[in-house]
Design a protein that fits this description.
169 residues; mainly alpha; two-stranded antiparallel sheet; 42% helix; flat
Length: 169
């Protein structure tokens, strides 16, 4: 405002914000059981809960579900610009063409990464974790690997009803 700066606060329990915004409110996590779905990963302060229908599970793997939260992950990580540019450059240069990311702003880099994510398959998502390690974003791949391991462990369990007491961080 004209008199005071905006002060952001963490979202309260059971809600999240997948964008960095001074005006957008937190959103309640989706209730998997209310939708007749099984919880694969409980939501956090930056992403919604990941749910699955029993009949979908055979057609999707853990990376497909992880991919749902990746755009918010990069916003939440608030990666240094140099590292974010390196990540975008490496991802966009995978096909052999050289990507120029040097003049792009943060929002443009997110848009480029999100465009890459939209067409990325399971193998690309696994390579993303290696690329994050390669550029020195040490905590980021560990966090994503933990989430992927949790999703995969939930997917390996028999799909029995809609039990929300299974949790993951």
């Amino acid at each position: 405002t004209a008199d005071t700066d905006t002060v952001c606060q963490a979202c309260p329990n059971r809600s999240y914000s997948d964008v960095s915004s001074a005006v957008q409110n937190c959103t309640l996590h989706r209730s998997c059981s209310a939708a007749g779905l099984q919880l694969l990963l409980r939501g956090s302060s930056w992403h919604d809960s990941i749910c699955s229908a029993c009949e979908q599970r055979a057609a999707r793997n853990g990376t497909d579900y992880l991919k749902e939260i990746l755009p918010a992950f990069f916003v939440h990580q608030n990666m240094a610009m140099k590292r974010l540019r390196r990540l975008a450059h490496k991802l966009l240069s995978e096909g052999g063409s050289k990507a120029n990311t040097s003049g792009l702003h943060r929002t443009d880099l997110y848009a480029q990464i999100n465009a890459w994510l939209s067409s990325a398959g399971p193998e690309n998502i696994r390579k993303l974790l290696d690329t994050l390690k390669e550029i020195g974003a040490n905590d980021a791949p560990k966090k994503l690997e933990r989430k992927l391991q949790h999703i995969n462990s939930q997917l390996s369990k028999p799909c029995a009803g809609t039990r929300e007491e299974v949790v993951g961080k």
